[in-house]
Each structure stands twice: as C-alpha cells, then as structure tokens.
Amino acid sequence: MSEHNKQSTPGGVPSKGRLLVVDDDTRHAESLAMMVSSWGYDVETAPDGAKAAGILVTRPIDIVLLDLHMPVADGHKVMDFIRKRNLKSRVIAISGDPSMDDAIKSLKKGADNFIRKPVAPVTLLKAIDDSLKRRAKDVEAADLKRRIDTKNSLHRLMFDVAPNLLFLLDVNGHFRMVNNVFSKVTGYSKQELLGMHWKSLVESDEVERIEHVFEERRTTPDQFPEVDLRLKCKEMSEPDLGQKPRTVLVALQSRRLYSLQDDKKVFFGTYGVARDITHYNKLEELNKYQEFHDDLTGLPNRVLFDDYLNFALTQAKHSETGLCLLNIVLDDLKQVNERYGHAAGDVCLKALATRLKRQVRKGDTLARIDGSEFLLLLPNIREEKSVIHLSEKIRMALTYPVIVDGKSISLQITVGTSLFPRDGENTEGLLQHAKTDFSALAKTRKRQQATSSNWIKLIKSNP
Q1: Which of 25, 52, 284, 300 could connect to 304 by a Cys-Cys bridge, CB 3.0–4.6 Å?
Q2: Among 102, 45, 103, 54, which Cα is nearest to 78's?
Q3: Domains delineated in the chain
Q4: Phi, psi (rounded to 5 degrees) for 113
C-alpha cells in the first residue's frame, strides 16, 4: 500500500477520509489497509510509532488505527504525541492483549474506541463511522470557535480603537472592561480600572444622580438618555492639600444588558459610551463669557450688568435698604485717542478699570457699558454720606496720570450718582438719573471752566 495520500479510491470514487494504520505486524497492517480501502477510504501504513508521528505532522489524517504494542514507540506514546501537538486525528486503539488494562489506558488517553484482535470488519466499520462523526463535530466546533474568536477579536479591536470612552460594568457596578481611550482620558491603567467601582470616579454630589442612570430596577427604557458627568482623573503627582482632583466632562449614554435564562431576562451588566466634551464645554464657557463681558477690560458688559441691577433692585425692595449707582465717564478719551493713538486710549481704559476694581467693596459690581463709560453698582447702602465719601474717593483715585510709553496722560473723570429709592424705583429711572446727574456735573464743570476763562480775559483786558 502506498504511503502517499490519495484524493480518491482506485475506482475514481471520492475518498470518505484519510486513515493511517500503525502496526508492526506487516501482514495484519496490510490486511486492515485493504479492508478499509475497499470501503472507500484513503489508507497509509506505518510499521511503528516513530514513523507514524512523522506522517501525522506532515499531512492531515482523519483516523489512526493504532496498535498499542510496537517497538521503537508504542501506541500509548503516539497518543501522547497527538495530544501534545493538538492534532485533530481521531484514534481507534487495537490490541491483542486479553486484559482490560490496554482498553482502560487507551480510552483515558483519548481513543474513541478499543478493538481486540482479530478485528471484526463490522466492529471496525462502525468504529470508523463513529470516529468520523466525532471528528466532523470537532471540526464544526473548531470552526465555530474560530469564527467566534475572530468576531470577538474584531469587537475587541473596535472596542479598543473607538474614539469615545467605552466601558462595561458588572451587576454590582464594577468595571469589567474599559477601552484604551477610557484609560488614556482618566489617567488610570486598565489594570487599575478593572474591578474598581464607578463611584470611585464620580464626585460625591453626583453619585445619586448617576446611580439612577445605572439602576437595574428603574422603570425607564434600557437605554438611558445622554447625561453630562464629571469623571475624576488620576493625579500624576501628589495634589496640594485642599486641591480638587482634575476632572473631565463627558456626555454619557448607558444601556442595561440582559441574558435569557429560562425565558426570563436576567440583568448581567451595563454598557456605557462617553464622549469627552471638556474642550467643547470650555469653548462654550468662553463664548458665554465673551457674550457677557467686555473684551478689553474683562468687566461685565451692559447685558450682564442689567441682570445684576435688576436682582440688586429686587433685593433692596425686599430688605428695604438703599442702593447706589455711579456713572463714571472718561471725558477726554477722544482727545487721548487723537493725540496719543487708540492703543494709548486702551491702556488708559484698562488702567481706569484696574483702579476702579481696587476701590469697590466685596459685593459691588463694576461694568464697562460703553467706550468711555463705566457703571458701578453699590448695594446695601445705609447712609447717603457714605456714597458721597466713596464717590470722592473714586474721583481722587482716578485723577492720577497714566504713564504710556514714557508719556504722562492725565485723565478727566466725571462721576454721576443716583440713589434708590430717592432718585428712582426702577432700573430705567436709576440709570437715567445717573446720566442726568453726570450731565449736571459736566455742565457745572464747563461753566466753571468758562468762568475761569472769562476771568482771565477780564484780567488781561484790565491790567
């Protein structure tokens, strides 16, 4: 019998499978080979275990008809070889030993069947048929496992390379899986995160809210709507005492996971997807800040100041306390811009804002509402004389020159005042009075300047 694999039987009929007969008794081996070949199988022979091992590693063999007692390497060693190499060949053990030891030992080592010599054709044919069915099941199971492993590997790859933070929690809320992005964003390694409870990454004041998101028994749908959540990150160095840990803001979506057991849904964990929106949130905060603040000085603008004024006015009415509004104007801003340039004018405005901030009390609100105009809100005013004193103090602080590129620029400041409830009981009335009061002061100053100029002319005309 040839030792080369055959794709078909001598009659051209497709082979039912490949068999290897291993027996040191040449006549018995040839007899078995002829019998099996007549049933439509490809057959090879080997005189001992060593040559059988060589054939098994060079070409696929479906079934080995294996004599247990041979020189060089017996059948038990061949079975050990098949198991260690994880070969897919099935084994039918054959022995002439009348004791049960060979049968028991061979079956323990993984043989499908045990047949005593002399071999009965019907018994052998049934044993081969059973082994081929087992092998087919093994191949099918291996193929299914390979496909599942491939699918799992693909899922794992997609899980790990996903651009968002992905995680899986067990029934008790501990991390079972996290992807690379989750680890990178939070600063924790996967080993540190696995087994950690989600509460360890959430601020204490948000635990109750997020607990509802992951709640197994809630009545809302399995998929929870997107919620914002701050995750605590691992500190790379020892944080200062009292310093809050670094956090990232994420938009979280989660879904409860169930398996079917006896036609019942059994909760086995939570799958979550989180998008890091820290950057977007900062941009949104910046946009909101710019919407309500002056670009040059960083002070609240007119829109935000109106909100502060309305709130302070409501509080003043409720507590029956006074409220003061100061309208502060840099009179000669236009002249400064024309003489020294707009950059110098901007320096003067920023200097004016800085000086004003130094004079105001805690709880006061300072805003820039126009090019040269500032508003100062003073709540909880008990006596009018305190306003007069503060106004004068501010006026004095603002009159000192500003140094720009080595040039000393004097500031001409006018301050208008309105008091609640004396000068108005609503925002419009108070703002109008502050401007009117400012206008009156400005007119007074102009009259004083005109009088002084006329007096000088009078002196010159009458030496």
Answers
A1: 300
A2: 54
A3: 18-140 (3.40.50.2300), 165-235+245-282 (3.30.450.20), 293-461 (3.30.70.270)
A4: -155, 165
133 CA to centre of own chain: 50
Q: Is the dihedral of CA 420, 422, 427, 431 positive or negative?
A: negative
The answer to whether the CB of 419 falls within 8 A of the CB of 324 is yes
Write the DSSP symbol of residue 372: S
Residues forming beta bridges with residue 168, ordered by sequence position: 177, 271
Residue 7's pLDDT is what? 45
pLDDT digits (tens, 9 = 90+) for 19-36: 999 999 999 999 999 999
Helix (H, G, I), strand (E, B) or coil at 225: strand
**CA-closest candidate to residue 43, choices 68, 67, 73, 65:** 65
Tell me the per-residue pLDDT of 296-315, one tens digit each, with 9 for 90 and over: 988 998 888 888 888 888 88
Q: Is the pLDDT of residue 55 over 90?
A: yes
**Cα–Cα distance between 312 and 266 in angstroms, integer?**
56
pLDDT tens digit sequence for 276-297? 888 776 666 666 777 788 889 8
- 352/408 Cα distance (integer angstroms): 14
Cα–Cα distance between 37 and 121 in angstroms, integer? 12
Sign of the alpha-carbon torsion through 436, 441, 442, 447: positive
| Alpha carbons 24 and 71: distance in angstroms, whole number | 7
